Automatic annotation (TrEMBL):
Record's keyword terms, sorted: DNA-binding, Transcription, Transcription regulation
Name of this chain's protein: TetR/AcrR family transcriptional regulator
Lineage, highest ranks first: Bacteria, Bacillati, Actinomycetota, Actinomycetes, Kitasatosporales
Superkingdom, taxonomy of origin: Bacteria
Ranges annotated as DNA-binding: 41-60
Disordered, as annotated region: 1-20
Species for this entry: Streptomyces composti
InterPro entries reported in the protein's UniProt record: Homeodomain-like_sf (IPR009057), HTH-type_TetR-like_transc_reg (IPR050109), HTH_TetR (IPR001647), Tet_transcr_reg_TetR-rel_C_sf (IPR036271), TetR_SbtR-like_C (IPR049445)
Domain HTH tetR-type: from-to ranges: 19-78
């Protein structure tokens, strides 16, 4: 007598309303982390998302898991912006400009420094997201250089550091001040981009900043 081999059951797909709730939590957390820092109470995030505290804890039992999800979701949106820029067939530098402004809107620079000391910055999801963004933006910059529109003495780190610094709210900025600060972000990002155009009007001090430089620093 043979025992029938049990057929493995597929994991149930999350319900549509559960997926919507998770998305609302991540969106609310991103907004509040940018405005108030990573220590904002989770019940405040739940209130902003319009869900109960239990829903937040069911999706994200630990704060680090929520922070990681927020950072990964922002990086995913940044990667999509880079892909859209690469799909454009017009001026290569203008495509790079549009990406830089889209990246500034994502405010990822305000999220990355906020992770706690216990946060696993080498989590596979984060590593994959980082690599994807870096590879796409490097291709954008290479294309602009090949077209003679981006100066040769700048690298990926120069662009990402510049956009990050210019789009980072001042420490301790409240919501009202943050909204007023945001009005100047794109003006300053454009000033940065104008300085990266070819032909170069001056010689830059130091050397171009690569991602390896940033990691070692």
């Amino acid at each position: 007598m043979q025992t029938a081999t049990p057929v493995p059951r597929k994991a149930p797909r999350p319900r549509a309303d559960a997926l919507r709730n998770r998305e609302r939590i991540v969106t609310a957390a991103r907004e509040m982390f940018v405005a108030h820092g990573p220590d904002v109470p989770l019940d405040e995030i739940a209130r902003r998302a319009g869900v109960g505290n239990a829903t937040v804890y069911r999706n994200f039992p630990e704060r680090d898991a929520l922070v990681r999800e927020v950072v990964c979701s922002v990086m995913e949106r940044t990667a999509r912006a880079a892909e859209e820029a690469l799909a454009e067939t017009g001026d290569a530098f203008e495509a790079l400009e549009r990406f830089a402004h889209a990246a500034a809107d994502e405010r990822i620079s305000a999220l990355c420094p906020m992770v706690s000391s216990a946060f696993d910055q080498h989590h596979p999801d984060l590593e994959e997201s980082r690599e994807r963004v870096e590879n796409l933006v490097a291709r954008l910059m290479d294309r602009a250089k090949a077209a003679g529109r981006l100066r040769e003495d700048v690298e990926l780190g120069d662009l990402l550091v510049g956009v990050s610094q210019l789009s980072r709210p001042p420490a301790g900025t409240g919501c009202d001040t943050l909204e007023r600060f945001n009005r100047f972000v794109h003006r300053h990002v454009q000033l940065l981009l104008d300085g990266m155009r070819a032909p170069a009007p001056s010689v830059l001090p130091g050397t171009a900043v690569t991602m390896e430089d940033l990691r070692q620093g």
